[in-house]
Amino acid sequence: MQGPSEFGLSGLLKEWDRKDDLPKIQVPTLMIGATFDTMDPEHMQWMATQVKQGSVLICPKGSHCSMWDDQEYYFAG
């Protein structure tokens, strides 16, 4: 579900995929990612288009923990 990653898939969750459920989400949903996140920012943007009321915040200086790495942008978002 996170798109391409440097981490390999293995174990019980390697076939787990919830992409088809995204359009079922009816509430406003904010996808938060960052330029240096392990989750691909382009994939985060795609996910935001799949939910009914989706939006995306990509923190330009952040990593997977943008609330620490890019606090000013994250909390203003």
What does this structure look like?
The chain has 77 residues and is of the alpha+beta class. It has one domain (23-76). 26% of the residues lie in helices and 16% in strands. The protein is built from three helices and two strands, in the order E-H-E-H-H. The chain has helices spanning 41-50, 66-69, 71-76; strands at 29-34, 54-59. The chain has a two-stranded parallel sheet with strand order 1-2. Strand 1, helix 1 (41-50) and strand 2 (54-59) form a beta-alpha-beta unit. The longest helix is centred in the middle third of the chain and has 10 residues, at 41-50. It is flat and about 35 Å long. The model has no long low-confidence stretch (mean pLDDT 87).
What are the key terms here?
single chain; 77 residues; alpha+beta; two-stranded parallel ribbon; 3 helices; 26% helix; flat
Give the secondary structure arrangement, pairings included:
Layout: E1 29-34, H1 41-50, E2 54-59, H2 66-69, H3 71-76
Parallel strand pairs: 1-2
